[in-house]
UniProtKB/TrEMBL annotation:
Protein name per UniProt: Uncharacterized protein
Residue ranges crossing the lipid bilayer per the database entry: 21-44
Swiss-Prot/TrEMBL keywords: Membrane, Transmembrane, Transmembrane helix
Recorded superkingdom: Eukaryota
Entry keyword Membrane: yes
Upper classification of the organism: Eukaryota, Metazoa, Cnidaria, Anthozoa, Hexacorallia
């Protein structure tokens, strides 16, 4: 009820309305359901949601850099996971042999814990064992 009144008083939509609409869209809500959202005031118009989604994508690299800088400044514990193995599932079988020009797909997850101090870096011993290769 609060969201509807807020949308009725102003043409601007609340961030919660945009996030709720994006969540509904990504969860598979039909176009009919998405069209009813602005009427009941639960979430924003589908164009507003698309604009919000694009803004999030454009802002994300800067946001990620800021978070990493904060973690370094606070000297807190951070975990970085990088994975380059993907299973891609599709409902339809591709009609072409090559469906993408991508040569590699990666996933990257950074988890920052501001309340946990960082693990000290050992200065006396190397982190990795050197491997000699003779050609």
């Amino acid at each position: 009820m609060t969201l509807r009144m807020a949308a009725g008083w102003s043409q601007k939509t609340l961030r919660l309305q945009k996030q709720s609409g994006l969540n509904a869209q990504l969860s598979g809500m039909s176009l009919t359901g998405l069209a009813a959202g602005p009427i009941i005031g639960f979430f924003a118009n589908s164009r507003t949601i698309l604009k919000f989604k694009n803004e999030l994508a454009l802002e994300h690299p800067n946001y990620a850099c800021e978070q990493v800088k904060k973690a370094i400044e606070l000297n807190c514990f951070a975990i970085l996971l990088v994975d380059d193995y993907h299973n891609v599932y599709a409902k339809k079988v591709p009609t072409k042999l090559i469906t993408s020009t991508a040569t590699q797909m990666d996933s990257c997850l950074l988890d920052i814990h501001p309340t946990i101090p960082a693990v000290p870096h050992p200065q006396q011993a190397p982190l990795h064992r050197p491997v000699r290769i003779t050609i």
